């Protein structure tokens, strides 16, 4: 009996020793892995700081150094016109006009770029009634709605936590595009909706959609249109400089959402975006998006 107890004790001691050695090895490997991760993180932080420094330098150049030569060119072109225009033939006058237009365009592009840069930097969010936001935008666009004889139907939209001015700008870009990019023989028909969706991470979101009956966008151009200064039509054919959808996408992403579209050439488009639902509002009773008879049309 004593022999058996000693044997069991020996087995237990050996097993404990093996487990202890294994535990020490795991701890050592964990310390090594942690040190490597800290090293990698420090490297990534350093690289990010370098990128931030480069970005600050670029912003300074865009705001100051790039503007100065443009202003100088514009000033000298103005002096040439003032002092020597009577000596210029039509070709020279046209050349001066091209220079002035190029300078103005460059200034506008840099202004747009600076505006794009600051979007999403505002951190003060509040509860926003998106139905009221859309009403405000439609009121602002009332002249265009009458011009195009448009019909716009808006569901009752939810309240979200967001930066009000940015959400207003987001809807303004989407609605003005829906009005603008429609065949001249077609009266715009626009429908604004919302619904609750659940993403791959089991997070509840509000998904907003703006559907139109416009030109539609072919598949190969659907990524391009969200890049800044990208336009699918010749410059000057439509107002704007190709910043609207880029700004819209950046606003959505700064609110931790995503933006996309479903479209087919000649069959209209649906632009959609998601906004996370605040924790206190995730009860199912808040997901009603019943349709109302809000109409915005020159015929009503």
What can you see in these coordinates?
- 20% of the residues are buried.
- Residues 284-300 have low confidence and may be disordered.
- This protein folds into two domains: 66-118, no CATH class; 126-297, Histidine kinase-like ATPase, C-terminal domain (Heat Shock Protein 90), CATH 3.30.565.10.
- The longest helix has 64 residues, at 2-65.
- β6 (259-263) and β7 (269-276) form a beta hairpin.
- It is of the alpha+beta class and 300 residues long.
- The termini are far apart.
- The chain has a six-stranded mixed β-sheet. Strands 1-3 form a two-stranded antiparallel sheet.
- Helices cover 52% and strands 16% of the residues.
- The chain has seven helices and eight strands.
- It is an enzyme of class 2 (transferase).
- It comes from Aquimarina brevivitae.
- Its EC number is 2.7.13.3.
- Pfam families: HATPase_c.
- One of its GO terms (molecular function) is phosphorelay sensor kinase activity.
């Amino acid at each position: 009996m004593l022999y058996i107890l000693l044997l069991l004790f020996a087995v237990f001691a050996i097993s404990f020793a093996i487990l202890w050695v294994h535990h020490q090895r795991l701890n050592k490997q964990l310390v090594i892995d942690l040190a490597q991760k800290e090293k990698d993180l420090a490297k990534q932080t350093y690289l990010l700081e370098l990128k931030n420094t480069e970005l600050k330098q670029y912003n300074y150049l865009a705001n100051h150094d790039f503007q100065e030569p443009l202003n100088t060119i514009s000033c000298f072109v103005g002096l040439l016109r003032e002092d020597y225009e009577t000596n210029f033939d039509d070709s020279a006058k046209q050349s001066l006009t091209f220079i002035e237009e190029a300078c103005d365009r460059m200034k506008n592009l840099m202004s747009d770029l600076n505006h794009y840069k600051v979007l999403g930097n505002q951190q003060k969010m509040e509860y926003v009634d998106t139905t009221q936001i859309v009403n405000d935008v439609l009121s602002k666009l009332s002249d265009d709605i009458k011009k195009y004889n448009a019909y716009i139907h808006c569901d009752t939209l939810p309240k979200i936590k967001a930066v009000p001015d940015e959400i207003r700008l987001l809807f303004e870009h989407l609605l003005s595009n829906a009005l603008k990019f429609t065949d001249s023989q077609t009266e715009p028909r626009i429908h604004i909706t919302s619904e609750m969706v659940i993403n791959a991470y089991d997070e509840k979101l509000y998904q907003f959609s703006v559907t139109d009956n416009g030109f539609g966008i072919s598949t190969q151009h659907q990524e391009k249109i969200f890049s800044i200064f990208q336009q699918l039509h010749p410059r000057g054919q439509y107002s704007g400089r190709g910043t609207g959808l880029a700004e819209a996408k950046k606003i959505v992403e700064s609110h931790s959402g995503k933006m996309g579209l479903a479209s087919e050439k000649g069959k209209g488009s649906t632009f959609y975006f998601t906004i996370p639902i605040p924790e206190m509002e995730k009860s199912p009773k808040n997901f009603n998006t019943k349709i109302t008879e809000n109409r915005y049309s020159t015929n009503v």
